[in-house]
Amino acid sequence: MKLLFLAFVALPGLAAVGAAQELRLFSIGTGGTGATYYPLGGTIANAISNPPGSRPCDEGGSCGVEGLIAVAQSSKGSVDNVQGIVSGRFDSGFSQSDVAYWAWSGTGLFDGEQPLDTLRVIAALYPEHIQLIARADAGISGIAGLEGKRVSLDEKGSGSYANASQILKFYGLTEGDLEPFYLKTAPAAEAIIAGQIDAFFITAGYPTNAIIELAERADITLVPIAGADADRIVEAFPFYSRDTVPAGTYPGIGATRTLAVGAQWVTDERADPELIHAITRVLWNDKSRALLDVGHAKGAEVTLESAFDGVAIPLHPGAERFYREIGAID
C-alpha cells in the first residue's frame, strides 16, 4: 500500500476488532518531519496496516492487521503525543521514556499536573540521543559555550525541549542566559545555514536525516555533552545514560560523547485490547521485521529482545497478553 504520511483526523477510540474488511483507522503521533519519529512512524504504520481489499499476506500482500489503516501524524513530539493520546487526539504515539514516566506519574516536567495515568506501553523501540548541533565558526565546544548564543531548544511541548531545559539547568544556565529560539529540526537547520542561529538541540535516534543534509550544506559540529555535569544528570535521572554518536554518523564529524534516553510506543489503557494485541503481534512478525530493517536506519534497533528496555509504566493489557503468549514475560 502507499504509505500515508499526511495528517489525518484521529478517531478518539477505535471500535473492537470486527468483521473482515471493516475499515479502521489508527493514528500514531510522531514528531517533526525532519527528525526520526516521523519517518519511523511511517514505516511502522505501513507494517501494521492492511486496508480492505489488500492481497493476502501469503500471496505477497500486506501482513498487517486486517482492515486497519495506520497513519503517522507529525506533532510537536513526546509531550504533545502523551497529552494527545490521553485526550483522544491520537490513538497512540512515540514518547521518550522519561517523558512517558513523568506524564504517567505526574512528576518531573509534569509535577503539579494531573497524572496521565492511563498511558500504557506497547513496546520500547530504540535509544535516542541528545544531539547539540552548532555552527563550526560559533566557538561552541561545550554546554557552557552556549551562554549568550542564539540557540534553538526545539518547540515547547517536545521531548527535545524538555531535555535541553534540564541540561542547561545542570550546567548552571537558564533560557535567559541565551537568545532562545523554539524551532523544530528542519527549520532550525535552515536557520543555521542562514546564519540566524548558532546551535540547536534535538533528541532523536541517529542518524537524523535533517542533520545529514545540514552537514552536506554547512560546516557544523556536534557538541559533546559530557563531564561531571553530565554525570550528575545521569545520577539524578535514571532514564538518561551515557553514550556516543559514532564517528562518520554525519559527514565530517568525529565520535561525540552525549546522553541518551529511550523511545517508546505508547497508547491509552482504554484502547481496545484485541486491537492492541493484534497490532503488537504484527509489529513483531517477519514481514514487519523486514520493513523495519530497510525503512529507517533506526528500524534495525527495534527488536523484541529490547521491547521492555527502560519501560517504567504499565504495558497495555493487549500488548502484555501477546508478550505472555510468546513467553517474553512471565
TrEMBL record:
<dbReference type="InterPro" id="IPR011852">
    <property type="entry name" value="TRAP_TAXI"/>
</dbReference>
<protein>
    <submittedName>
        <fullName>TAXI family TRAP transporter solute-binding subunit</fullName>
    </submittedName>
</protein>
<keyword id="KW-0732">Signal</keyword>
<feature type="signal peptide">
    <location>
        <begin position="1"/>
        <end position="15"/>
    </location>
</feature>
<dbReference type="Pfam" id="PF16868">
    <property type="entry name" value="NMT1_3"/>
</dbReference>
